[in-house]
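Recap for those who missed Tuesday's class. We walked through two folding examples back to back. For each one, the amino acid string is listed first and its predicted structure tokens come directly after. Nothing is annotated here on purpose, so try labeling regions yourself before you check the end of the notes.
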Amino acid sequence: MSSLQYHQVTDHDAIFSDSQWDAIVLLTPTLTLENYPEISQLVNHAAHVDAGISQQTSLLLAPGLAGGRLVVAPVAKADDPYSDVRVYANAAEQGIKRALAAGAKAPLLIVNKDEQRDNEFAESVAALAAAQALWQPLEGREAGVKSANLDRLGLLSEEVDADLLNALEAGRYLARDLCGTDPERMAPPAFADYLVQQLADSGLSVSVISDEATLRADYPLLSAVSRASFAVARHCPRVVRVEYRPQGEITRTIVIAGKGVTYDTGGADLKVGGAMVGMSRDKGGAAAAAGLMKSLSILKPQGLHVIAELGLVRNSIGSDCFVPDEIITSAAGVRVRIGNTDAEGRLVLADVMTHLHKDYGDAPNVEMFSIATLTGHVVRAYGGYTAAVENQAARKLGVANDIQLRGEALGEPLEISRLRPEDFDFISATSSADDALSANNAPSSVTARGHQFPAAFLVKASGVNESMPYTHLDIAGSAVSGNPHYGTPTATPMVGLLAYLLK
């Protein structure tokens, strides 16, 4: 099943019953609808009967309007000075679900914006939220569960870029499938195979490293995490590189390292007390990076060269698993003392970053990103928000600030953290036997600066020099919405990062 398709509608008459749409979904912060008199009369009449229409999503019989259905979804807290454009996303989610329950297959979304506030992208935010709400897990679709999804979604707007939205949603759809699927269906080899299949006709270059000898030699930290899984064929690691190369001159190069831990038992530092549940979502960084490449393959931006490398591993427990106190030399030649095997994602990323830096460090205007569900601390610090942690070169360029502004305008805000000298002190050598410590032996959520110092480790262990702008994006708190273990993958930070790349 393909991703939801958005259709831009500019003809006001599309709201009437003789159009191709079978329901109107109105998102509005007020019952005053000056631009839609036909709808205003119906809504205000209903409000005389039920005052709750301004407080909760309602379905009205609407003779003469498309499909005879009108869903009114109030935009709550639109005038709250601390709220943002996500109030339209919340309304869209409720409105589209109500339309679906009513039997609609082709609803037309209308966003009545609050003109007193800057909500330039409210229609786009609402449309993306509707698709997020309607996504169904890959396993369910493969099992033949009957889809209740929409055939298409209309957006009544002269401003929205439907082509951009469709490209973005195609990538987010792939990212949700990769992230939200169980640890056997999407173990490292299966993840790689599925991605190759889905990108087969994309024009992207896709390569997969599966040879054990090559992985052990070239990705030693990644292979240490995978040591207990090498004996199980279906759990063996993979490294996948996906490349978008534009036609013509390259003026800007972006390299992205994605953490793809398809299941995290914690290894020898075993996750106990129920902490292992939900760890099939520890591949959200690799999934988002893959989805971003899918979107780029559709949009085909000029001058922009993007390479994503995904480290796909299973952190298994077993007689051959790696343990704390081991010293393992990274791909960059840095001797890493293992402090905690449950801090495995940074080991995977470090080797991937080394190879990206080696291959593209001299490319035109190059920037590096890492995307990972990395720490519990970021959830403790920021709740459901992504954290961006930059090196000094990226900070001078204002990379995180730029992504923050663009992402927030499109309903995907993030927080910015700073690297400090203490973060590098934290991971410094413990003796002459090593060059860096991977982690302490306490949960990151109870460790001071628990999401900042891992970025310092990534800089140190990967050998990425300070002249390359590098931004780490920790999505542990934002990768899933709803149920913390089994909720819907969000494909974060695709929206803000794509907006940044296309600037």
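Example two. Treat it independently of the first, because the proteins are unrelated.
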Amino acid sequence: MKTSSTALERRNLGLLVAAQSLGGASPPIIISLGGLVGQMLSSTPTASTLPVSLYQLGLALSTLPAAWLMHRAGRRTAYLLGAVLGVLSGLIAAWGISQSDFLLFCLGTTLAGFYGACVQSYRFAAIDAVGDTTRHASAISRVMVGGLIAAIIGPQVVIWTRDSLPATPFAGSFYSQAALALLALPLLLALRLPPAPPRAEPHGARPLSQIARTPQFIVAAIAGVVSYGLMAFLMTAAPMAMVGCGHSVGEAALGIQWHVLAMFAPSFFTGRLIARWGKRAVTGLGLVLIAASGLLALMGLALTHFWGALVLLGVGWNFGFIGATALLADCHRPSERAKVQALNDFLVFGTVAVASFGSGQLLHSVGWGGINAGMLPMVAVVLALLGWQSLRQRRGAAIQS
């Protein structure tokens, strides 16, 4: 029986890795090209990042209904619906380009947000797939390795297909986005995840408002918001900044590819770093690397500065976001898991959506250097909170001893 259970765990994790590889390829396509297509279709320069911002908004608004659907109908049903919407979103976005319809293109990227919310939830499905709580961190890291494959697939799809339909530049990439989501459907259909835990424990689950006021949740959520928010904000602006500085679209896409590779490649060992150094230390290291990416970006506008900053930003996101996710796991009981995870993702991606709406305006007004300089104080605040929490924990341990 144990052998059968272990085989099922391996099978589910393998399917989640493959689904992550395909689903995780959509955001690089949208982010690499969304601003450029926006510049092509929109008559207002400051609205150029609106398609990417609407993708982030769609993702944020989908976290809560996606979590509700997962609880009511199971993760597999929600994931299948997400992939179907992923297919439709790519088709609608491509059709919007072919019709030179900016609003239709924006509708396509917005619909992709629900698929994105489901893909982001694959890391939580990895927890459900393994029964041993000591293996949760390694399961999360393993599934997120699928993002490493996505980092290759997404940007390469942009490079190979952006001019495949000469009459409608970039439309071929969005048709390819739809095809990737279509390929994910049979993988998700084959998932056999255990049922969700009961909504209440014998002693009763705590209200969400009570959990949200705990210092543990506040620090974990803020660390996740800042790690993911800054990464997405800078990643959205980077392709336009690179093209504006004279670099080619292909070089911008390769920069995003190196960035996404850096986001997921450390997942091979992030779990081990957390086990050795602790969750707060790894989260703090990630934030330091995000700050270092901003400092490198301020040093020049050569291709090496852009690519180097994007690589540091990706590694920093990996440590910061996985560390924050691990910190979040300490904030809730099993019966509280779904609602706490949904609230955390709503806060993270809601902030990302709000920030991305301002990225085009800020890039236009203060430039690439200005937005990199502006993110440094935010990193400093989160590092201070992590230090305060660590000191608070040590004092509590000293009093108990």
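Answers for example two:
Residues 155 and 254 are 7 Å apart (CA to CA).
The domain at 2-192+208-400 is CATH 1.20.1250.20 (Growth Hormone; Chain: A;).
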